[in-house]
Amino acid sequence: MKSTSGRRRKARAPRRTTRPQFLTLAALLVVASLVGGFLALTRSDHTAPTASADGGKGKGSTSKGGKEPEWDGRTKVLGDGSTSYTGPQKGELKPEPLKPGEKPPQFVVFSWDGALEGDDHLFSHYRELAKRYDAHMTFFLTGIYLLPKSKKDLYHPPQHPVGSAAISYPTDEHIRTTLEQLREAYEDGNEIGTHFNGHFCGEKGGGDWSVEEWKSEIDQFFSFVEKWKTNTGYTDIAPLPFDFRKQVTGGRAPCLEGQANLLKAAKSYGWRYDASSAGDFQIWPVKKNGIWDFPLQMLPYENGKFQGLSMDFNFLYNQSEGETEGDPAKYPQWEQQTVDSYLAGFNRVYYGSRAPLFIGNHFEDWNGGIYMKAVDQVVEKVCTKKEVKCVSFKELADWLDVQKPETLQSLRNLDPAQSPDWSTVVK
Q1: Does residue 69 fall inside a structural domain?
Q2: CATH code, 129
Q3: Does any domain span residue 92?
Q4: Nearest 10 degrees: CA dihedral of 409, 412, 414, 417?
Q5: Is 63 within a domain?
Q6: Which partner for 207 in 62, 70, 258, 264 could form a disulfide, CB atoms 3.0-4.6 Å apart?
Q7: Phi-psi domain of 417 (left: phi exceeds 0; alpha: psi -120 through 50; beta: other)
């Protein structure tokens, strides 16, 4: 795998593995725990505390529950000038309740773990691809991707030595290019979420963290992204055009670990959703602890013989046994398998229950970049279809929040492939 500073040295993914559909999730977890490593595959406002406005002069909000910055048509610089408030984000989906008998849109959410603009320019590629097809995506930013390696001692990860991380710190140039993409992604209507900081999995990872340790990880994420100017010393880059504490309303935990305590921590930040669970079939979402649960999903794999999790590393694990550079002769076959699985999952709900489809990927070139190429094809094929809305997780949460509770319950009662009489579901 190409070595790029700031990128993962090794693949990290849920410690779970896909097996025949009749296996229970509990059985899947038992099997996966035996596979080893950080492995495996398978199976995926509302307002938080605001930073001080007016360049840190004390005006505006300084903590949760405080006064919000007053919007007067001009940019309100926040903190040390790393971020700003420029008014409501433009171009977001306007959430509207379904009318009686109306078929729901087919929502599709493409989300990306890490959100670094590295030498491969994958962040910019998918930002531009989304714009081309009138789609919005969710980019989960890793906090230390805005922290220079020379300042790594500012990071105090839970249960790990100061400055340590399971991924590489970025180069100074990659911090600059990532800041540029964050700006443009937001201005294009995409969502910026969190992938937290050090990407620790397994022992002493998120699954072992207490509520207070998760809060520490979250607070440090906000510190890194709100103080990138102080930490980098850059004076030639304008503030990002959004307030992270308002715009970040959810995230995905590394390796999908630790959701129970993470949800307890997230409530105090006013978060709306979490995308850190795995292994559910394609059903309409529910809330956990008052927060929308947007899991990675089980999709048909190998013509439906198995159900595999809707994330790139899970295909990698099934196809090349976790090796990031498998047999090149099999790349075309594996790429087509991946495309077929995503499209089978899409078609199952598009012509059925209309449950949202969640696809989660990494900015990686595993197996010759076939998983990136697969997503390229899927975006083009599905985001152009009638009644399909390719949205961010935040936009989906907004839409769900305006639906009648009885409508959502009726939608949840549908099997994924069930195409109902919508007049009996949406009343």
Answers
A1: no
A2: 3.20.20.370
A3: no
A4: 150
A5: no
A6: 258
A7: alpha
| Contact status, residue 421 vs residue 410, Cβ threshold 8 Å | no
Sheet holding 306-309, edge to edge: 19-20, 306-309, 298-301
What is the widest separation between alpha-carbon atoms in the chain? 61
Q: Which residue has the tokens 């630790």?
A: 258
Q: Report the residue count for the chain.
A: 427
3-class DSSP state for residue 389?
Answer: strand
Give the count of alpha carbons within 13 A of 49, CB side only: 16
Residue type, 181: Q
* 47 Cβ contact list (under 8 Å, min separation 6): 68, 246, 270
CA dist 162 and 250 (Å) reads 26
State the total domains in the chain.
1
DSSP 398: H
CA dist list (Å): 304 to 21, 22, 288, 307: 9, 12, 29, 7
Kindly give the confidence (pLDDT) of every residue in the chain, 427 residues in length, as a single tens digit, with 9 standing for 90 and above: 333 334 443 333 333 333 333 233 333 332 333 233 322 333 222 233 333 333 333 333 333 333 444 445 678 999 999 999 999 999 999 999 999 999 999 999 999 999 999 999 999 999 999 999 999 999 999 999 999 999 999 999 999 999 999 999 999 999 999 999 999 999 999 999 999 999 999 999 999 999 999 999 999 999 999 999 999 999 999 999 999 999 999 999 999 999 999 999 999 999 999 999 987 889 999 999 999 999 999 999 988 888 989 999 999 999 999 899 999 999 999 999 999 999 999 999 999 999 999 999 999 999 999 999 999 999 999 999 999 999 999 999 999 999 999 999 999 999 999 999 999 999 9
* Domain annotation covers residue 234: yes
Domain of residue 107, residue span: 19-55+76-84+97-425
